[in-house]
């Protein structure tokens, strides 16, 4: 089965490759195409809208296979969920995790979580969503050189290290994306799409 993962984010692609790239019979390929990412209220809204658009606009040579997209974000309790669905925008415009650290200076409640929503379409009967969440806290300072995006400031529950201090494999064991990918893996194992 061939899966085209449309993403501009190399870090995401590496994590997905680690989790499902080695599943027998799955051939994963990255596509760098753009699609509309609306400013919806939830990640699910954003992904559903994008899948509708892709169904209409993507070339058949891709839709003849399985096509995958993913939207994710970091939600900080004390900031009422910000940057959340604006995580990519904050990362691009005001410096991502440094901006979050500045907003959180002196705050004792450092609870936060990551969420992800993966959508697949193409050779599935109906477009399908897989979601994942990872609770944790924000570090006081950035730590680690691995991962991407907000990883240097996020410590998952039950750990002392940030995601950026873990290998891709370790991060996948805890992470929002790793959890959603487990469900996707089960789905792929139970389906007869090729
Ligand atoms: P796409 O092309 O796949 O959309 P993107 O980087 O724009 O790639 P999103 O729209 O999902 O990704 O935006 C999510 C933002 O949150 C983005 O800035 C990411 O760097 C960051 N992010 C997402 N997942 C993350 C993770 O597991 N660890 C750290 N930061 C993450």
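^ Assign residues to that structure.
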């Amino acid at each position: 089965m061939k899966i085209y993962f449309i993403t501009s984010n190399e870090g995401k692609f590496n994590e997905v490759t680690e989790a499902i790239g080695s599943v027998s019979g799955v051939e994963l390929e990255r596509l760098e195409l753009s699609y509309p990412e609306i400013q919806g209220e939830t990640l699910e809204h954003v992904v559903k809208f994008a899948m509708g658009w892709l169904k209409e606009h993507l070339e058949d040579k891709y839709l003849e296979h399985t096509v995958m997209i993913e939207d994710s974000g970091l939600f900080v309790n004390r900031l009422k969920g910000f940057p959340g669905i604006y995580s990519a925008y904050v990362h691009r415009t005001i410096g991502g995790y440094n901006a979050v650290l500045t907003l959180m200076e002196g705050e004792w409640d450092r609870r936060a979580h990551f969420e992800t929503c993966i959508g697949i379409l193409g050779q599935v009967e109906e477009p399908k969503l897989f979601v994942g969440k990872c609770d944790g806290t924000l570090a006081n300072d950035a730590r680690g050189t691995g991962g991407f995006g907000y990883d240097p400031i996020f410590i998952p529950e039950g750990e002392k290290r940030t995601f950026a201090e873990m290998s891709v494999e370790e991060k996948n064991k805890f992470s929002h994306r790793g959890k959603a990918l487990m469900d996707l893996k089960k789905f792929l194992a139970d389906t007869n799409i090729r």
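Residues 29 and 43 are 23 Å apart (CA to CA).
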